[in-house]
Every structure is written in C-alpha cells, then in structure tokens.
User: Which sequence fits this backbone?
C-alpha cells in the first residue's frame, strides 16, 4: 500500500468540509475523484499529499514514496522561466553532473590509492547517471513538453508572464518527468487540446504506478480510471470501475435507497396510526411498546441530489433554411500592412437546426473563426451572411464580457429588464439563490461566471447559439444539465469544445481545423475519431527504460571486449598499452580544462571516454599477460 488515510476531518472556520474519510491507494491504483464544485476534492488532495493538515485523522505513506502533485491553480509568482520549472524535475541529474565533474578533477589531481578511489567513485556516479537516464533526459523532456501541448519556444517565457494554461502545462510536464510512485493531478485536462488529452491518456495507461486525478472530463475518466471516489456532502464513497460503471452503480444505489426509504416511511405511517388509535384503549400497552420501538428506529434519509443548474427547455424562433452562409472565408489578423492568416475555408453553409462542433489544437484559430462569424472581427477575405430572422447568442471563452463592477442580479437585468421576482426565480435555476444574487461579479468563481453567462445568454432566446468552451469550470452535474437543455434546443448550434463527451452528445457534424484549413466532416464525433485515430503508441514504463539503458551499457562492454579480442590477435600489446596510456593522459588534460570551465557536457563525455579507455588498458594488460605466459 502506497498511502492510506483514516478518519480524516477538515474544517474551514466553522464549516465542515468533510468528515470520516478513510481511503487507501495501492501500487497500481487508477483513481478518479469526482463531485460537485466546492465539495472538498482539492482540499482532500492537499491533505493526502501533505500540503494541508487535517483537523482530525492521519495520513500514512510508505517509506521513500515519491509523490508528484499538480494543482489546479499554478503559482503566479514562480521565479525563472517555464524551462526552469520543467527542468527542475532533473535536479538529481544536475547534482550528479556536478559530482562527476568533481570526481574527474580528483582523478586528474590524485595519485596512487587516492586516484583509484576517485576512479571507483567516478564509475559509480557514471552508472547512477546512466540508470537515471542522464544521456537521454533532454529527449525525454522534449517528448513530454510536446505531449502536453507546449512548444520549445514557450519554455523560454518567464513563469510570471505565462498564462494560466502555460503554467499548468509546465507543472504537468515537470510532474510527469519526475517519474513518481504516486501522481496526483487536479483538473489536468482543463488546458489540453485533443492531441494533449490523447497523449496524456496514453501516457497514464502505460504509467506503471499509481494515479489519483480530479476531473470533470467523463471521457478521460472512462479511459484512465479503474476506481472512482465520490465526494458528496462531506462524505466519500468508493466505487469500482471507470466513470460509466460508477454512474450505473450510483443510479442503482439511489434507487435502492429510495425503495428502502419508502418502505420505512410506509412502516412508520402504519405504526403511528396504530399508536394513535390504541394508545388510550385496551391495547395501550402494545401501543406504548410500538411507540418506544419507533422512537429508537434508525431513520433512513431520502436520497438527496446535489444542487445543479435546472435550465429547462430552450426554445428558438424559426429561421430560414440556411442560418449562416460562409463564402471564401480567410481568417486572421492585420497589423499595419502585415497580414497573418490563421485559417481558410471553402464555401460552407450552416443549415438551420444543425449542430456543428469546431475542433482543433490550441491556438489554431477556433475562437478567431467564431469572432469573425459573429462580426466582431473582420475577415481577411470572403463574407459571412446571416440567414433570415437569425438571432445569435454567444457564450465566449473565459466569460470576459461580464460586468465585474455589478452584482449578479444587476448583471442579469442589464441583459433583460424583467420584474425582480421573475429575475430571481430565473437565476435560481442557475444556482444563484437567496443572497447569492447580490454577489459581486468580480468575486465569482470560474463555474459561477459560466453559469451567469449562460443565464444572460439563454434569457435572450436566440435561435443560433454560438458557444466557445461552454463546459469549462462546470462540474459534471451542471454539464449534464446543459446537455439536457441543448438537446431540447430546436435552433442551430455551433460550438468549440474539448469536452469529448459533450461533443459526442451534441455534434452531428465536425469542422476540423488542420494545417490552416477547415475540413468539414459529415458525421458525429465517434465517426470522426475513428476516421482520424492515429496508431496507438507503445507505452514505455520506467522499468522498460531502465532495461534499455542496461542493454546499452552491456552492449558497450561487449563492444570493448570484442575490440580487445581483435587487438590481441593483431597488435603488439606493449605498443597498444603505451598508446592507450598516452590517450588517458590527453583525456586528463582535457578534463582539467573542462573542469575549470565547469563544462558539464564535456566533463560527462570525457569522463565516459576516460572510463572506457581505462577498461581498454586493463583488457590489454590481461591479454599481454596471457600471451607472455
């Protein structure tokens, strides 16, 4: 067992966040932690990883356990560049390089026994350096950085100036490169595109150690997890299987609890009727006995559902057959006389009532395309024409258009001026109840901002909905409520999303942006994925990498033996030994120069050459002795 926790309890002030939480994490666990926003998932992760002290209970970790934790919100004031953040995963290797440099210098300066000890120490350090992947860590870093969707140029961005997405991806890359025994991830999919999500899923599928992940991405949870922890109303339940299996088990549990509750309520009603009827009659003794037993009865609570948005149907007025007509569209930016083209598309029509998902890598131009269609940005060429009676409604990514200087009620009423009571009833469907409507918009969480934006959007009754990442910051229950609403929406839907479950339900066709071109696909998300799925990469575990390095080391040893065997048959050993000793002397001089410059790359390369040449000398002496004997 890697980690166990018993009877954990946590308070924030007077508010109990969770209580009586006991969990275990085994060596190969694949755990998904789910629950509504604000239910305490992040707090539990911080307690388990040692970042937060519980008010009761304890956490026990196995000896030497290496834990990597990627938080949902990266540090804003981290020093250095993103490259520094990622490369901090290799601090052990950098320390070994310094030790190798010092040992090489000791070899060059030492004599006799001191020199031999330095040579032995150097060989030990070199073997440890090889085992830790010292000769391949840069390639490994490049692969992981590319996998999480970062460019090598982005690595040179100061961490303090990087976006939240860039900082999160850098933190994720660093965690993956530390090769931990337990990887703990809090919403790792928030800033990843399809390629990044697929890469992370494949990586975790081949990762031979334990993973605990908080996520609202149902597709991701299905592919990665084999156990689900549900945090609900301060309690934690464990369910075997992936997310889909958990939902089936949870549904069956609720149905069972409801039946048990109804049976008990029926029993209680019968007992209370008997007690009231016979309490003062001949059967009063029996009635009092039943009353005593009823008072001691442990009551079963009715299953409670978590609060979630309840939007209801979204009706749309009729439009013409074509909702949007795009002709020869070229999308990008103009700065002075310079034009930057992000993407182009052939003539396309968006039919009334259709549902189209726009997909593609981060930064490829999806949001710019939407803003061009809406007329917020001029096209570089081509035209966008709205169909007859089209009323667009736009939910922008990041909800930046909300008025931060107003409260929730004021922000809603500025869109549609309706009676206060009616407005509060409508906002309550989006979980803004009681005094919540007086919260300042600037103080809202990401999920609250998305819910307010949805309320402001749907109250205008548009017939063409254009949504940019509508599920961002919504918990699973709220995503499902949004899906229910949009499924009943009889207007036109055009949206950008990385939520593959959401796309799978909503999209009837796909616009895939690839190599600067919008490529239409007639079919849903599952069909598009099957048509575009790349070959599955073979996962490489830490043990496999270690075996590969051992094979390389054995191969080099065998090569030296073979070389010595050939030399023993063809050369004068005394001459060979003399030449090899001269070579060692020359390497020592180069090592001395490299040590003075603190050139760790040269020191490592020369150190390996020195060790190999010393082995060649030993082999030559052995062959010379045998030949002389």
Assistant:
């Amino acid at each position: 067992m890697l980690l166990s926790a018993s009877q954990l309890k946590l308070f924030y002030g007077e508010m109990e966040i969770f209580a009586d939480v006991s969990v275990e994490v085994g060596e190969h666990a694949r755990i998904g932690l789910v629950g509504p926003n604000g239910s305490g998932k992040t707090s539990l992760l911080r307690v388990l990883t040692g970042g937060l002290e519980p008010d009761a209970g304890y956490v026990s970790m196995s000896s030497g356990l290496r834990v990597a934790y990627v938080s949902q919100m990266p540090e804003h004031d981290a020093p250095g560049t993103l490259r520094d953040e990622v490369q901090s995963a290799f601090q052990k290797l950098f320390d070994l390089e310094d030790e190798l440099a010092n040992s090489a210098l000791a070899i060059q300066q030492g004599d006799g026994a001191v020199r031999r000890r330095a040579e032995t120490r150097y060989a030990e350090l070199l073997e440890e350096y090889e085992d830790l992947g010292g000769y391949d860590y840069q390639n490994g870093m490049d692969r992981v950085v590319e996998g999480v969707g970062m460019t090598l140029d982005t690595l040179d961005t100061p961490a303090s100036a990087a976006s939240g997405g860039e900082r999160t991806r850098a933190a994720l890359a660093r965690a993956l490169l530390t090769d931990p025994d337990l990887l703990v991830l809090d919403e790792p999919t928030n800033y990843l595109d399809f390629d990044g999500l697929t890469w992370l899923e494949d990586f975790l599928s081949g990762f031979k150690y334990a993973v605990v992940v908080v996520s609202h991405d149902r597709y991701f949870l299905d592919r990665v997890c084999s156990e689900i922890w549900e945090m609900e109303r301060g309690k934690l339940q464990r369910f075997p299987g992936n997310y889909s299996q958990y939902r089936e088990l949870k549904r069956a549990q609720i149905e069972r609890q409801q039946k048990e509750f109804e049976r008990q309520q029926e029993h209680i009603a019968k007992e209370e009727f008997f007690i009231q009827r016979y309490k003062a009659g001949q059967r009063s003794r029996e009635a009092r006995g039943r009353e005593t037993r009823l008072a001691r009865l442990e009551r079963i609570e009715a299953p409670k559902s978590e609060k979630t948005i309840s939007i209801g149907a979204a009706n749309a007025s009729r439009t013409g057959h074509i909702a949007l007509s795009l002709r020869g569209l070229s999308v990008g930016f103009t700065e002075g006389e310079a034009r930057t083209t992000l993407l182009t598309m052939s003539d396309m029509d968006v039919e009334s009532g259709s549902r189209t998902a726009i997909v593609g890598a981060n930064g490829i131009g999806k949001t710019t395309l939407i803003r061009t269609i809406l007329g917020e940005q001029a096209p570089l060429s081509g035209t966008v024409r709205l169909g007859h009676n089209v009323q667009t409604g736009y939910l922008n990514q990041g909800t930046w258009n909300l008025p931060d200087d107003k409260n929730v009620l004021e922000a809603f009423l500025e869109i549609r001026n309706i009676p206060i009571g009616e407005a509060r009833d409508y906002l309550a469907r989006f979980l803004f109840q009681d005094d919540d409507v007086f919260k300042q918009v600037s103080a809202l969480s990401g999920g609250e901002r998305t819910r307010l934006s949805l309320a402001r959007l749907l109250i205008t009754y548009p017939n063409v909905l254009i949504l940019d990442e509508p599920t961002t910051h919504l918990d699973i229950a709220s995503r499902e409520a949004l899906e229910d609403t949009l499924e009943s929406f009889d207007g036109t839907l055009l949206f950008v999303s990385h939520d593959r479950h959401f796309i799978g339900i909503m999209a009837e066709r796909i616009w895939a942006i690839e190599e600067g071109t919008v490529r239409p696909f007639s079919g849903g998300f599952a069909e598009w994925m099957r048509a575009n799925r790349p070959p599955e990469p073979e996962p490489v575990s830490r043990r496999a990498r270690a075996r590969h390095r051992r094979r390389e080391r054995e191969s080099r040893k065998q090569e030296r033996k073979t070389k010595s065997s050939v030399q023993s048959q063809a050369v004068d050993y005394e001459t060979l030994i003399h030449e090899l000793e001269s070579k060692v002397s020359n390497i020592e001089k180069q090592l001395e120069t490299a040590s003075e410059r603190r050139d760790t790359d040269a020191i490592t390369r020369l150190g390996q050459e020195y060790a190999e040449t010393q082995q060649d000398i030993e082999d030559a002496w052995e062959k010379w002795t045998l030949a002389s004997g």
Remarks:
- Residues 536-542, 563-571 have pLDDT under 50 and may be disordered.
- The longest helix spans residues 243-278.
- The radius of gyration is 33 Å.
- Residues 594 and 603 are 6 Å apart (CA to CA).
